[in-house]
Design brief:
single chain; 236 residues; alpha+beta; 2 domains; three-stranded antiparallel beta sheet; elongated
Length: 236
């Protein structure tokens, strides 16, 4: 295969990765707290023996869109939405994770947990306990969480120490090499933040990627026919 074929094949591989990311965005358009992702293409220079270097597109990076999404009112006492910057800090078997999905519920032990059973951590990195006799729970805009009129915890907002080090793990969970407190964000009770995916934009993007892939495939097919023709001509 010549240089043009290698470059096109490498581009096709990147477009397939982008298509998978777009499809995942569309599938999570209604997932609470989901963050839209994009693929980052970079130039890759390959050195060839006794030939000029070959420039190819390399789709190895992902960009997480941290833009604010619409906030919907639910009325749930343990539904929290973040307005502004920051993430909730969650304790998982694989370590601490960040999320914008704020749907929690008290566990049998009285700890606030996610639907997957992961514990919500407060501003000091400790689990949050809700008293068994708690009837009325309230959350102030500064994160003070109260039960029966008595403060029981201080919810904190966190962000990655290195914004570029935020890595999507699965669903609405993100990993970071380090986290630090955020003071600008506001936590709202009885509300949830929607996904920040715009379905129409993502479908348009999917069509664009699909057409680009089809053009690349047509080029590869034409190149294959050309090579076959040359081989047949020389073989006569």
């Amino acid at each position: 295969m010549d240089a043009a074929g290698y470059a096109t094949l490498n581009r096709q591989s990147g477009l397939m990765r982008e298509m998978a990311v777009v499809a995942n965005n569309i599938a999570n358009a209604s997932t609470t707290g989901f963050r839209r992702e994009g693929v980052v293409f970079s130039e890759y220079i390959a050195a060839l023996d006794n030939d000029p270097s070959l420039s190819m597109a390399h789709a190895s990076g992902r960009h997480v869109d941290l833009g604010q999404a619409t906030i919907s009112q639910t009325g749930g006492s343990y539904d929290f939405a973040i307005q502004g910057e920051g993430f909730f800090l969650i304790e998982t078997p694989d370590g601490e994770r960040l999320t914008r999905a704020g749907s929690f519920t008290p566990s049998a032990e009285g700890e606030l947990v996610t639907p997957d059973g992961y514990r919500l951590l407060d501003g000091g990195g400790a689990p949050i306990f809700v008293p068994p006799d708690a009837r009325a729970v309230a959350l102030a805009r500064d994160g003070t969480f109260s039960a029966n009129g008595q403060p029981i915890a201080q919810l904190g907002l966190w962000q990655p120490t290195d914004p570029l080090g935020l890595r999507h793990q699965s669903g609405t969970l993100f990993a970071a090499d380090g986290v630090e407190p955020v003071e600008q964000g506001v936590i709202l009770q009885g509300m949830l933040e929607d996904s920040n995916v715009e379905p129409v934009s993502e479908i348009t993007r999917m069509i664009t990627v699909q057409r680009a892939y089809e053009l690349g495939q047509k080029f590869l097919d034409a190149e294959d026919e050309r090579v076959r023709g040359v081989i047949q001509t020389l073989g006569r």
